DNA sequence: TATTGTTATACTCTATAACTATA
DNA sequence: TATAGTTATAGAGTATAACAATA
């Protein structure tokens, strides 16, 4: 084959690929998310951080970093920005002066409620072609993928390429 | 609520969220992908570019950029790196000296075949908890999400935050 | 004029390594 | 010694703007 082709579609990596189907859906949902939230929205990782702090007030940065799957240094910047926006507070903990207790400010709670309303629209849009049953089924099937086993030594290998967990 | 909490889990953005379920599954599949491919693998975007060039030999950079959903300047770097690795060639087109005809080299074809074998393992791993029927169902449901309508003016708003399309 | 590819530049996000303070 | 947070630095990936060559 002198034209540089690799032959028929057998070698098309996108053909019958669950991984590709997930990635494509995720890219599209992010397009819808950004369009729904508007240009001034905080990033998905920040949204999730805000949501976790709201749901688990008092959590510290290390535990939050673990849940978001980012490193501690990366977490610092996220909290810095959320604090700079007046959405989150670092509060001193009486018993342990090494760490902070993270908490939402009043403005943070307002922002979270507003985000919750906007993400309801977003959720409706990305599921517009699904019945309620299909949507629930899709979520449960995705859960099964999300708990698939990572091969040995995977965390290390994947370390440099990880992505944050976002809505 | 003086502890900074936002109330009960109603405001947990990750609760009953299709968007979050998709993102979580995608993050996990990438962990498995990187672990399966090993540390020296080319990036998912490069893999997809290679696959598209293999399936559509002669495609030019602009058309490829469109399929990968990246800008032309970004495409230049991807092709530069694939050419630097000896996997892809820019060939002159007799009729139009503005653009190149992209084609795989022999090494590029070998690389693509090798990637195809590795991604088979990867696909098996991420689907390990699914039956064949569930896997097919999941893909078809994800397709419905991937074609969900982007709200008005979405492409512009999402432009600065887009991600590449990967396997 | 429109299209293709390129360069220059900058931004966001993430990581690793080394450090300080505290336990 | 171990843990929490921080700083400094670097790398990958993406974008926009401006430009040259060609159609």
From TrEMBL, chains A, B:
Taxonomic source organism: Bradyrhizobium denitrificans
UniProt xrefs under SUPFAM superfamilies: Winged helix' DNA-binding domain (SSF46785)
Record keyword DNA-binding present: yes
SMART domains per record: HTH_MARR (SM00347)
Pfam families, sorted: MarR (PF01047)
InterPro entries: HTH_MarR-typ (IPR000835), Tscrpt_reg_MarR-type_CS (IPR023187), WH-like_DNA-bd_sf (IPR036388), WH_DNA-bd_sf (IPR036390)
Residues of the HTH marR-type domain: 15-147
Keywords: DNA-binding, Transcription, Transcription regulation
Highest taxon in the source lineage: Bacteria
Record protein name field: MarR family transcriptional regulator
Transmembrane segments: none
PROSITE patterns: HTH_MARR_1, HTH_MARR_2
């Amino acid at each position: 084959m002198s034209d540089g082709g690799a032959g028929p579609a057998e070698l098309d990596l996108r053909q019958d690929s669950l991984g590709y189907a997930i990635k494509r859906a995720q890219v599209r949902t992010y397009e819808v998310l950004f369009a729904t939230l508007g240009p001034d929205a905080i990033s998905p990782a920040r949204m999730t951080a805000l949501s976790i702090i709201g749901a688990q007030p008092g959590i510290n940065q290390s535990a939050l970093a673990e849940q978001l799957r980012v490193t501690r240094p990366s977490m610092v910047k996220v909290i810095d920005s959320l604090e700079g926006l007046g959405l989150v507070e670092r509060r001193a903990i009486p018993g342990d002066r090494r760490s902070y207790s993270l908490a939402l400010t009043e403005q943070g709670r307002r922002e979270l409620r507003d985000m919750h309303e906007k993400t309801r629209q977003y959720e409706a849009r990305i599921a517009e072609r699904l019945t309620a049953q299909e949507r629930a089924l899709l979520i449960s099937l995705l859960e099964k993928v999300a708990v698939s086993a990572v091969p040995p030594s995977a965390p290390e290998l994947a370390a440099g390429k990880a992505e944050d967990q976002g809505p």
